[in-house]
Amino acid sequence: xxxxxxxxxxxxxxxxxxxxxxxxxxxxxxxxxxxxxxxxxxxxxxxxxxxxxxxxxxxxxxxxxxxxxxxxxxxxxxxxxxxxxxxxxxxxxxxxxxxxxxxxxxxxxxxxxxxxxxxxxxxxxxxxxxxxxxxxxxxxxxxxxxxxxxxxxxxxxxxxxxxxxxxxxxxxxxxxxxxxxxxxxxxxxxxxxxxxxxxxxxxxxxxxxxxxxxxxxxxxxxxxxxxxxxxxxxxxxxxxxxxxxxxxxxxxxxxxx
Length: 257
Prior knowledge:
Number of strands: 11
Helix content: 25-40%
Strand content: 25-35%
Radius of gyration: 19 Å
Distance between the termini: 49 Å
Number of helices: 9
Largest sheet: 6 strands, mixed
CATH topology of the largest domain: Rossmann fold
Strand order of the largest sheet: 5-6-7-3-8-9
Order of helices and strands: EEEHEHEHHHHEHEHEEHEE
């Protein structure tokens, strides 16, 4: 099968600090892949390396067989939802305007969106089920509604690869489940490859095809269910599973008593 992402001996450092070390990873096209690991493990750096936002100290990254800067320069192959997409919730901009920002890579910052761009933006809002919110100010929406807007912005470029950095942070359990289901639905409808950073082991196990456990290095890359050894290597401590149904619900430090 063709590869969406390929990493070979990838090392990334910031000011002498090693964020990723000797990462070798292959992501097949059409897969829904969860990326799991503790804080500071290099999960966001992994996504930024794919986007070409950070340069390897050693090794290489290929996206659809090309260097990231060539892929991103073309626009449209990669959609990205960062951790904190809303820096100023009081900024007077509508949901539709936010989604249209996703077209700037193709339109250009100094050019006005065309009717076709607006049509694609409305189609993206329709895909995530919130066309009725198109004219609402982004700051007036709930957390779950805002995340749907930002996902719509990411898919507005009609990508082949969709990357989401902790999209369910600060959402309640019901909103999280709805968002996971939405992402899985978009993956099928749009024939996407999806990379999603997440801390919820249970959600990872229920929704994805493969899991990458990373803590500077890749410690595990396999379909669910996850084994104890791989998780302990990733999190650097003993762990225990709390089960909800047939999948692990949380991972916590083991303790006496």
